[in-house]
Design brief:
homodimer; 444 residues; BirA Bifunctional Protein, domain 2; Rossmann fold; 8-stranded mixed beta sheet; 5-stranded mixed beta sheet; 17 helices
Chain lengths: 444, 444
């Protein structure tokens, strides 16, 4: 026999069970996006290399998959590459279609992206992102809505999470205040690791990155800030009072939290925490205002959702002055969290509800007629395609988690009934076609 | 300003309006697939080149997009390519996962495929296929179910179609009977063009392809067959009576039509025609039994759905003896047919139902609270993010086809109401929060 076929490393097949779980995740996120008025777009899997290059740093450029036409010679540089994320194609979309768009433009997009990363546990070369962005307004109500979306998505999943919020302007203010305004990237890269490596190592790294001892000393009270969001805001406002940018960041965070908290009662949800985290420093290449990151509370997993505000994303394509804010859900990590916490619903909507199992060819034709009636009533129905051994038909139902089997033999045909077997309990009862339809459209 | 960005030729962006129409198509097809117990799988966008090469003929090999890793040198031949269709990856999936699968295995798959074809009207380099296949049984009930699926999908779309059916064994029988058993591909390639070029040109082509005049003469009665399916079956059975293969094909078509027609009353659908078409000859590289093709009756468009039975698809990956039958819906052509016949539903489910338009910052906060309540009731709701000119907010609602706008000014805040404007009629009325919720959850 030929060698068993395989798929490229870092890619995956998804089985029917995996697909119904993935669809549960996508459908949940999608319906909350829609609830907030986001509209779906899709962009091509391939973009011009000129659209992609230089947008993800040197590291990112190396991780782009390039596409070669059959017509192109191998030595020619491919002109096209696979999408690396949904954000850059979205910026390209906004600029390209600006005349057709009505701003503010609220779009969501759920599509795969590709990265030629070294595959490892939980890291794939093809994976889905679920993004929602509002562009064309700098109103902080958008940030508040994105927080509400995160809360509602995880409430529906039953995952307890905390949303960490920070602001790029606060980070800039800190760099100014400690006298190292040009070292903001070094500072944030180092303090981003606080959780993982602890304060001593962070301080070492800051010195290695060329910060003065004075600057590192001045940073200490900020790294050690604790207490409620209000306590932290008060403390940081005191530290940053000389920095206009820093104070603007503080004001933005305050306003977002005020607006968000003003509707707390209506939400009545105690399993969602919004926490100001002054050490949060993601996506600094493009974020200019709020920064978000979401972590599951009951399971050790990295960030499962993240986002922030960018004031000039479309500027790279020649359209300056369009402020936007967005959020991205990581479907693969959410998949793992739901599995680890055993939170998938028992019945996912897309499974077959009823299988007809038959003792002969005549019975099979009888079953096909009944099946048509069941399908017209909206019941997902199969007829086992061969009147083979009943045991085999039953184990097919078992393996596919089909809850009901309608058995048809000569007696049932004579009586114009089927023998309905409930697979979970093993109970059997003869039913007419109307009784069967009612039983399955109104399950108790 | 920089040059306006663009996308690779033959690819497309999909706007929100296009996406909601596409989703309508995918959702309709998907729900009928589910109704018949098909289960979704997904395979990676990229496959090993060894999986793809040689499966689509020489022409097909040339149309494969190849993928280059960043790590690979340009002169190295890429090992991976983008999926060209869903059938070969499905065959690879079945062989690779055979131990986990329960046969008969019914799968559906809705994913994009890529072909480096020359782009032209209606032909793209990235497009979606919607496939359903049953593998692991040779029962003709599967063919009948696929016909029912085609009927139900187009009934839901409101498109009148005719499904043409033929059988590869009949075509083989014809080639045998006219004394040219080895020329079946030549014969079918030529007669496949009957509709387009007429019988004279078909005869010329047959002679050019090396058929004897005697053979071409013997073929004439078959090309000119007409009448009901029963008439044609009777006539062709007479012609093929010496060919065992041919008569088996006739018997299969008869049985499929008999089973399908036995439930005709229950379906009560006069806008769907099943027609035996002895000149239908698609996909002969792999089809071995039934062949299907579907055409819209009220609009000139090529085949919008096609399929057939293949007895040895997984054989190419070393797993012989697995018979299967499948069908593939062409989403892009269906999109164009629905547009041309103006058959899209007026309201597609994913649009925003309600926009809050406000006269000031206070009113906007008031609206955000109301919006939360509406969303909790399942109403897709937006709050315009800036209390800008009312005219601008109204034209946003217009442009985005939002049917209801709730206007909030100081009077409304005092009275604990909103002024609801119905955009279609222009009618306005003040409503309390409960009245608004009821109005939008139970639209007349």
């Amino acid at each position: 026999m030929a060698q068993k076929p395989s798929i490229p490393k870092g890619t995956r097949d998804f089985s029917p069970v995996e697909m119904s779980r993935r669809n549960y995740i996508f459908d949940t996120i999608r319906s909350v996006f829609r609830l907030y008025g986001f509209r779906q777009i899709e962009t091509p899997s391939m973009e011009q290399m000129s659209t992609l290059m230089g947008k993800y740093g040197e590291e990112g450029d190396k991780l782009l998959f390039r596409i070669q036409n059959s017509g192109e010679k191998a030595k020619e540089a491919p002109e096209k590459g696979l999408r690396y994320d949904l954000t850059v194609p979205f910026a390209r979309y906004v600029v390209q279609h600006r005349e057709e768009l009505q701003f503010p433009f609220r779009r969501y997009q759920i599509q795969p992206v590709w990265r030629a990363d070294r595959p490892q546990k939980g890291r794939y070369r093809e994976f889905y992102q679920c993004d929602a962005d509002v562009v064309g307004t700098d109103s902080l109500t958008s940030e508040v809505e994105l927080i509400e979306i995160v809360e509602e998505v995880y409430r529906r999943f039953g995952i307890h999470v905390s949303l960490h919020i920070n602001n790029r302007k606060i980070l800039a203010g800190i760099a100014q205040t400690i006298g190292e305004p040009d070292k903001i990237i070094d500072i944030t890269t180092a303090i981003d690791k606080l959780d993982k490596i602890g304060i001593e190592k962070v301080n070492e790294e800051l010195l290695e990155r060329g910060l003065s001892e004075t600057a590192v000393n001045r940073l200490q009270p900020i790294l050690r800030l604790s207490g409620s969001n209000e306590d932290k805001l008060q403390a940081i406002a005191e530290v940053l009072k000389e920095s206009e940018t820093g104070m603007q960041g503080v004001a933005e965070v305050k306003e977002i939290l005020r607006l968000y908290n003003s509707n707390k009662e209506q939400r009545d949800n105690n399993s969602f925490i919004v926490e100001l985290d002054l050490t949060l420093a993601r996506g600094l290449n493009y974020y200019t205002g709020a920064i978000f990151e979401v972590k599951a509370l009951d399971v050790a997993m990295g960030s499962i959702t993240g986002g922030g505000r960018y004031d000039n994303l479309t500027g790279i394509f020649g359209m300056p002055g369009v402020s936007g804010v967005g959020i991205s859900f990581g479907a693969d990590r959410i998949y793992d969290v739901l599995a680890e916490l055993n939170l998938y619903p028992d019945t996912l909507s897309d499974t077959t509800q009823l299988l007809f199992a038959t003792f002969g060819k005549q019975e099979m034709e009888y079953a096909m007629r009944w099946a048509l009636v069941m399908r017209q009533a909206g019941i997902n129905t199969e007829v086992y395609p061969d009147p083979t051994k009943m045991k085999k038909q039953m184990s097919y139902a078992d393996a596919n988690h089909i809850p009901f089997v309608a058995i048809v033999g000569s007696t049932e045909m004579e009586n114009n009934t089927v023998m309905l077997k409930e697979m979970l309990t093993g109970e059997q009862q003869p039913l007419t076609i109307t009784e069967l339809k009612n039983k399955l459209t109104n399950p108790q």
